[in-house]
Amino acid sequence: MKKLLYKEIRLGMHPTNPLFLGLSAMLLIPNYPYYVIFFYTTLALFFTCLSARENHDMEYSMLLPVDKADLVKSRFLYAVLLEMAQVLCAIPFALLRRKLNPDPNLAGMDANVALFGLSLLMLGVFNWVFFSRYYADPQKVGKSFCLACVAVFCYVLLAESAAFAVPFFRNVLDTPDPTHMGAKLAVLAAGAALYALLTLWALRRSIRRFTALDL
Amino acid sequence: MNPLEVSGLTKKYPSFLLDDVSFQVRPGEIMGFIGRNGAGKTTTLKCLTDMVHPDKGEVCFFGMPFSGNQRAVKQRIGFVSGAVDFYMRKKLSAITDVTRRFYENWDEAAYRRWMERFSLDERKTPAALSQGMKIKYCLALALSHRAELLILDEPTSGLDPVSRSDLLENFLMLAKEGVSILFSTHITSDLERCAHRIAYIRSGRIQAVCKTEEFAGEYRLVSLPETPQDGPVKAALIGPRLEKTGLSALVRREDAQRLGLPCVPCDLENAMIHLEKEA
To answer: How many contacts (CB atoms, under 8 Å) link A and B?
Structure first.
């Protein structure tokens, strides 16, 4: 798996991937829908899969002494590492924002602990929709991404609407840290657990579909 | 033990059937896999390494079924599908650096030797290589992990005559060193130069597996000024084709003697084009 991950980084990684990590700094924008930062992570993964198709990565990888399932696992590992890197890069900017500008975010969820939990769930939804569809037909990467975008936008719409309309979200979760830390940490834990669950589910579905696929 | 044994390979598509394909590649042998475009050559080769899943049949490499032994088998074979068309903008050195990590038997000295023999510059990208050089790079990668069997899908297509000749010479040299080669092509003259045996596939079915010279040796090529009216002669003609000076056709060797037809020995290309016409 280490070798395949090296291949993903050395040959497959799209140049936008590390650049998009820097977009975590958008947490410093005073009023902004912060979910967009994590949407860029999904865009980076789309670019990587698109670039893999254009570079005939599948044809190259199938020649290597690895199982077909390993190819799926390594791409998932790369995706999870990129998503975690985005989260880790965002943490210092969230802390900095609180220090520089403790006012609430008027454009959506505050840059707080709950936002990270909800964003992880968003990434889990993306992984589930995008990769499950992508590995059924890797040539149609655009179609898979469109479907995943619809799912992600619906999720963000619901989450942002809840921050305005649902009292628990508005009064407890959408507040500057460190108030209501217990509830926010619970949302973070639930978000992380659901992210892991959706991603593992997507991995199983993707392996099953890809190994049955004729290339 | 044969490096490759294929038996009863069957794959059904809505408009094509690969039907009960069987053949073997022996140690140190160059086997040509011929057939016209769309005959099933690439589908067969893809079935060998599970890129396409056959509905039926068995593929064994070095006595091991491919299924369940993918990693071990791929360590010992090299598969070259046309020229390198992956990672066209990456340097060859980067592609090699990744590739070499996957092979237990990677031989860096052999890699350097092949790169030098093929006059390949690692600082170049595949996009900067000619078609022939791209194929040579793929071969260099396959040979550097000491592949005992090379499976090559149309390796000489698109090459100029000199590059093709160079490549065939390399195949012969490799076969002498004990490497087995299975290569598909529709350029039959390549096979006459280097293949020990051929497998001929037509419309998804294997028509013949035999020594290269035996295949065409079964037939004679006859040229006639016009279509014969004589019943036995007309019946003996196989795949008659119109030519500038009349028509040409194959006849079986024994028919040529029996009917006393003016004929010349048949080469692989003529055998194939007339047999395809007859089909």
So the answer is: 61
Question: Domain boundaries in chain B?
Answer: 4-211, 218-278
For residue range B130-182, list pLDDT tens digits in order: 877 888 888 888 888 888 999 988 877 767 788 788 888 888 888 998 899 99
CB B84 within 8 A of CB B131: no
Do A215 and B52 lie within an 8 Å CB cutoff? yes
- A150 CB-near residues (< 8 Å, 6+ apart): none
Burial class (CB in 10 A: 0-12, 13-18, 19+), B197: buried
pLDDT digits (tens, 9 = 90+) for B184-237: 887 888 888 888 999 999 889 998 888 888 888 888 888 877 776 767 777 778
List the domain boundaries for chain A: 2-211
CATH architecture of B4-211: 3-Layer(aba) Sandwich (3.40)
Return all residues near B116 (Cβ < 8 A) that are at least 6 apart. none
Chain B residues with CB under 8 Å of A215 CB are 46, 51-52
Distance CA B176, CA B89 (A): 35
Asked if this assembly's ipTM is beyond 0.85, the reply is no
Alpha-carbon span A198 to B235, nearest angstrom: 69
Assess contact for B170 and B163: CB atoms under 8 A. no
